[in-house]
Recover the amino acids of this structure.
C-alpha cells in the first residue's frame, strides 16, 4: 500500500480528491438503486389504492394506512404462515447442523473402508441440480404420505452435502490430541462428538446455520409442490397467494405489505449475523 | 531343551503375540469404524433416498409416459419419444432453452463486471464501509419471490415508480414486463440486482487474499494503478472468477422463482409471458409436470437441461483453465 499510494500521491495530488468524490458519487447512486425497491415496498405498503395508481405516484403516503397490514393478516393468514415457516426453518437447520457435523466429524477423524468413495459420492451429489430430481422426490414424498404436512416440507432438506464438506474441512483442523485425551478419560465416541467437537465447531456451525436458514426461509418451489392447502403455507407461499388475491391495481398495497412482512426476518437475521453470512459466501468462493 | 517355562521361549512368544495379534484384532473389529459408519449413516441414507435414487429414477421416467398416478411397473415405455418431442416439436421448450441461455449469459456477464467494480470500490479507502456493504448485500438475503414482486410493482407500465422517474427526465413510459421485447431484459435486470452482492463478497475475499507484496513489487517496477490492475489483480483473481462463472451459470440456468413472481398470476396463468418471451426451462418443466401431469416429458426436459449444464460447466472449466 505504501509504495503504490506514495506514487499515486506524487503523481496526482490534484486528481486524488476528484477520484474520491467520484467514488462517493458511485457509492451513493448504487445504494439508491439497491434501496429503491425496499423504499417503494414500504411506501406503497402504507398507501391507499387510489394513491398507488396515481400518476405520477406520490413518493410518500399522505397518511400511513396501517390497516393494510391488518388486512394482509386476514387475507392470507400470514400469522399461521409465520408459524409454519419458523417450525420448518428451525427443524431443517437443526437437522442440517446435526447431520453435517456428525458425518463431517466421521470423515475428518476416522479411518474406515470405502471412506474416500463415500465422500466422493457426497461431493458429487452437490452437483445434482434440484430440478433434475424434483419429480422423483415429489413422488417419493407422496408415497411416504408426507404431502401437505411438516414431514414433507422438512425431511427432504435435512441433509446438506455442502454442509458435510464444510464441517469436514473445519473439524479436520481440530487437533487429534484433544480427541485422544478424551478417549483416555474414557469418553465414548458419541460423547467426544457431543461435548468436544460440537463446542469447538461453533464458528463453522454458525456460518452453515445462517446460510441454510436464509435458504430455507426463502425457498419456494419445493413448498409450492408439497403444500396443497393454506394450513401448511410457509411465508413465501402466503406471499404467492397474495399475488393472486385481487387485481393488481386494487391489491398492490396489500401485496407490498405482505412483502414487507416476509422480508423483515431475512433482513433482521442478515444485519444481525451478516459476518457469518459473508464468511459463508467467501468460504464457498474460495474453497470451490 | 527349551520348555514352556523357559524364560526365553516365553518372552519371544509374548513378543510375537503382541506384535501380530492386536494389529489383526484392530483391523477386524475396531469399534471406532462402526461409530464412523453410524455417524455418516443419516447423510448416506438421505442422499441415497433424495438424490442418488431420484437421479436414476428421473432418467427412467424420461423414457416412459407417466402421469404420476399409474403404478411404476405399468408405465408405458416410449423410448426416446419424449426427447424427440420436446427437441423437435415443442416450440415453447426450444424458446425456453434459448431464453434460459440468454438469461444466464447476460446475468453472469453483467454481474462479473459490476461485482468486480463493486468489490474494488469497497476494497479502496472509503468511509462507512459496513454501511455501503450492507446496502449491496441486502438483496441476496431477500427471497427471489419477494424481490420479483417488488420489481414487478416498480416496473408496472401504468403506475410504476420507474416510469415516473423516467418521465421526470423526459423518457416516455416503457411497457417493461408487458412487452415481449423488454420482458426478458427486465428479468435479467432483476437477477443482476439480486445477485450482484454475492459477486461483490466473493471478489472482495479474493482481493483481500492477494498479498500486498505483489503490488509493492509492481510499483517498484514502475507499474501505474491501471497496469497493476491488469497484470496483478486480474490474473490473481482468475480462480475466483472461474468459481463465480461456473457456479452462477449453473444457478442461473435453473432460474424459476423470479420468472414465476414476475410473470404468473396475471392473464397468462402458465407464466413465462408475454408470448413466452420469458419462458425458462424449469418453469416450462414445472408446468408440464404439475399442470399437465406429463412426467415423462418433463423428466426429459430435466435431463436435457442437466446435460446442458454439465457440458457448459466442462467447457467453462476448459476455457478458463486453458488460457492460463
Amino acid at each position: 500500500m505504501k509504495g503504490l499510494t506514495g506514487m499515486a500521491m506524487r503523481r496526482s495530488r490534484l486528481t486524488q480528491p476528484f477520484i474520491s468524490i467520484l467514488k462517493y458519487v458511485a457509492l451513493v447512486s448504487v445504494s439508491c438503486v439497491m434501496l429503491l425497491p425496499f423504499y417503494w415496498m414500504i411506501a406503497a405498503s402504507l398507501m391507499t389504492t387510489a394513491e398507488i395508481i396515481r400518476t405520477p405516484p406520490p413518493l410518500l403516503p399522505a397518511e400511513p394506512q396501517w390497516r393494510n397490514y391488518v388486512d394482509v393478516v386476514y387475507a392470507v393468514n400470514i400469522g399461521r404462515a409465520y408459524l409454519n415457516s419458523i417450525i420448518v426453518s428451525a427443524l431443517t437447520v437443526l437437522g442440517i447442523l446435526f447431520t453435517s457435523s456428525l458425518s463431517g466429524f466421521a470423515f475428518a477423524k476416522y479411518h474406515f473402508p470405502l471412506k474416500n468413495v463415500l465422500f466422493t459420492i457426497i461431493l458429487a451429489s452437490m452437483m445434482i441440480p434440484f430440478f433434475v430430481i424434483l419429480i422423483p422426490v415429489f413422488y417419493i414424498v407422496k408415497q411416504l404420505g408426507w404431502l401437505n404436512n411438516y414431514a414433507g416440507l422438512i425431511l427432504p432438506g435435512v441433509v446438506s452435502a455442502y454442509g458435510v464438506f464444510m464441517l469436514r474441512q473445519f473439524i479436520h483442523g481440530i487437533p487429534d490430541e484433544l480427541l485422544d485425551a478424551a478417549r483416555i478419560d474414557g469418553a465414548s465416541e458419541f460423547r467426544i462428538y457431543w461435548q468436544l467437537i460440537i463446542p469447538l465447531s461453533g464458528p463453522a456451525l454458525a456460518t452453515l446455520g445462517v446460510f441454510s436458514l436464509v435458504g430455507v426461509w426463502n425457498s419456494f418451489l419445493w413448498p409450492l409442490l408439497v403444500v396443497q392447502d393454506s394450513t401448511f403455507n410457509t411465508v413465501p407461499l402466503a406471499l404467492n397467494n397474495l399475488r393472486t388475491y385481487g387485481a393488481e391495481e386494487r391489491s398492490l398495497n396489500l401485496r407490498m405489505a405482505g412483502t414487507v412482512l416476509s422480508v423483515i426476518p431475512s433482513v433482521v437475521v442478515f444485519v444481525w449475523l451478516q459476518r457469518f453470512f459473508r464468511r459463508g459466501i467467501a468460504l464457498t468462493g474460495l474453497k470451490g | 531343551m527349551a520348555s514352556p517355562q523357559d524364560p526365553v521361549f516365553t518372552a519371544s512368544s509374548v513378543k510375537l503375540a503382541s506384535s501380530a495379534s492386536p494389529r489383526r484384532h484392530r483391523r477386524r473389529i475396531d469399534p471406532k469404524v462402526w461409530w464412523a459408519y453410524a455417524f455418516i449413516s443419516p447423510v448416506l441414507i438421505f442422499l441415497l433416498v433424495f438424490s442418488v435414487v431420484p437421479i436414476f429414477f428421473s432418467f427412467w421416467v424420461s423414457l416412459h409416459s407417466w402421469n404420476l398416478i399409474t403404478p411404476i411397473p405399468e408405465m408405458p415405455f416410449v423410448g426416446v419419444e419424449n426427447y424427440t418431442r420436446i427437441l423437435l416439436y415443442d416450440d415453447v421448450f426450444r424458446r425456453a432453452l434459448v431464453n434460459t441461455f440468454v438469461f444466464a449469459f447476460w446475468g453472469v456477464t453483467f454481474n462479473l463486471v459490476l461485482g468486480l467494480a463493486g468489490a474494488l470500490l469497497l476494497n479502496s479507502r472509503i468511509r462507512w464501509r459496513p454501511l455501503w456493504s450492507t446496502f449491496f448485500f441486502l438483496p441476496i438475503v431477500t427471497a427471489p419471490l419477494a424481490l420479483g414482486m417488488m420489481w414487478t410493482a416498480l416496473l408496472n407500465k401504468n403506475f410504476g415508480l420507474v416510469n415516473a422517474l423516467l418521465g421526470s427526465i423526459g423518457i416516455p413510459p416503457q411497457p417493461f414486463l408487458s412487452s415481449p421485447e423488454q420482458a426478458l431484459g427486465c428479468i435479467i435486470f432483476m437477477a443482476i440486482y439480486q445477485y450482484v452482492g454475492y459477486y461483490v463478497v466473493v471478489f472482495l475475499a479474493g482481493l483481500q487474499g492477494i498479498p500486498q507484496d505483489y503490488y509493492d513489487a509492481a510499483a517498484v517496477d514502475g507499474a501505474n494503478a491501471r497496469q497493476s490492475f491488469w497484470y496483478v489483480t486480474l490474473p490473481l483473481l482468475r480462480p475466483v472468477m472461474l468459481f463465480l462463472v461456473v457456479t452462477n451459470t449453473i444457478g442461473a440456468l435453473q432460474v424459476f422463482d423470479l420468472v414465476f413472481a414476475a410473470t404468473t398470476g396475471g392473464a397468462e396463468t402458465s407464466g413465462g409471458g408475454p408470448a413466452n418471451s420469458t419462458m425458462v426451462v424449469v418453469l416450462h418443466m414445472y408446468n408440464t409436470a404439475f399442470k399437465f401431469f406429463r412426467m415423462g416429458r418433463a423428466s426429459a426436459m430435466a435431463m436435457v437441461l442437466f446435460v446442458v449444464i454439465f457440458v457448459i460447466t466442462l467447457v467453462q472449466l476448459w476455457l478458463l483453465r486453458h488460457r492460463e
User: Anything to note?
Assistant: The longest helix of chain A spans residues 248-287. Chain A has a mean pLDDT of 86.
